[in-house]
Amino acid sequence: MLKIDLTSCNQARFRLAGGPRLGQSRVMAETDIVRGRDRALAHVEDWVFDLDNTLYPASCNLFAQIDQRMGAFISELLDVSLAEARALQKHYFREHGTTMRGLMDQHGVDPEVFLAFVHEIDHSPLPESPALAAALARLPGRKVIFTNASVAHAEKVMARLGVADQFEAIFDIVAADYRPKPDPAAYRQLAEAVEMEPRTTAFVDDIPRNLAPAAEIGMTTVWLRTETEYAQQGDIGDHVHHVADDLVAWLEGVLAARG
Ligand SMILES: [Mg+2]
């Protein structure tokens, strides 16, 4: 039986209650699902990574803090209960791509004020990840962050993980003119800004619907599967080319397949 380990986000997220042999094979099965595609991603020259719940496990609950602050922001702004605020938050996320976009469109919220407020969180649950830094360092090609959050938040996360040196650029919600993933315009803007050729670029994100516009313009997509409700929304369609449960293990698999 698999259970999710919430005691430490530094550990593999899936732990097995049964014997180690069965456990190992089950974990491998969870992390190596590939939909009939090239495991080495030999054609890929550049790599685009989402930030929250992708570079670090959702079990760190960092995004849960941001999520909570969004609710508090809405409750204060509209003078509604936290429960009503939560319902609105989810509604805007579904209908506008992000909660922030919904608040901008429907209530004229200043995005800079919103971004600063929701990212005022405790980043200390994030453990340093030398394994991720090492895997990224060994991976040939340019690496870029593509996030619906802000550069300030991304820099804090990357510093905690110890991977800041591994990335060439952060393309954030401000760079995307506040048009969040999955707005197709943001992907085109990203490809232009960092001069990446979509056909030789891979894109990793924990929210399946964010992969669709990337696949549409020719990128190879990787769904980093998590237990969060965000990640479960949307159909897992043909736009999901690869599935991974653990980013480090998956990258190491790519490196091993490349030889
Ligand atoms: Mg994410």
Describe it for me?
- This protein is α/β, with parallel strands linked by helices.
- It has 2 domains: 37-58 and 128-258, HAD superfamily/HAD-like (Rossmann fold, 3-Layer(aba) Sandwich); 62-118, DNA polymerase, domain 1.
- Helices cover 43% and strands 12% of the residues.
- The chain has 11 helices and 8 strands.
- It has helices at residues 20-31, 62-78, 82-96, 99-107, 111-118, 130-138, 151-161, 184-193, 212-216, 229-232, 247-258, and strands at 2-4, 14-16, 46-49, 142-146, 169-171, 201-205, 220-224, 242-244.
- The strands form 2 sheets. The chain has a 6-stranded parallel sheet with strand order 5-4-3-6-7-8. The protein has a two-stranded antiparallel ribbon with strand order 1-2.
- Helix 9 (212-216) links the parallel strand 6 and strand 7.
- The two termini are 33 Å apart.
- The relative contact order is 0.17.
- Residues 1-7 and 11-32 have low confidence and may be disordered.
- The structure holds magnesium ion.
- Magnesium ion is lined by residues 50, 52-54, 205-207.
